[in-house]
Amino acid sequence: MVSVPALRSNALLTLTILAVALLFMLHELRLELRLQGAALIRRERKGCFAIEIYRRVVMLQLPAHVSAFPVPRERRIRVRRFWGIALSQQEISVALPVSACENLSGIAPGDFDPQFPSWLRSAA
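Request: output the structure for the sequence above.
Response:
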């Protein structure tokens, strides 16, 4: 027969594991929503660890006191994963020249690489 304290500790352990799993699932869902429409431009794997670089070119509406018109920007996001689970993400956005408005979809990943830190460039 199992004692009551042992049952309570097993239930607490089970609830803790479920809570941690739920947190990871919500974190992944938030990341997937954030990466929606972004293209994967680089992936590096070292054993269980992976680093992925995503990019998205958008017209961004800035606050009214900065600009009344949308401006072209390129966003890059670095995602660190361990066994496929996202541990962290970092995002940097840079302004593109106004001439980029004419052909946002035609901007290649390497066109504005020098504006990004080395860890966010399309080629390592």
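The beta strands are 39-46, 49-60, 71-82, 85-95.
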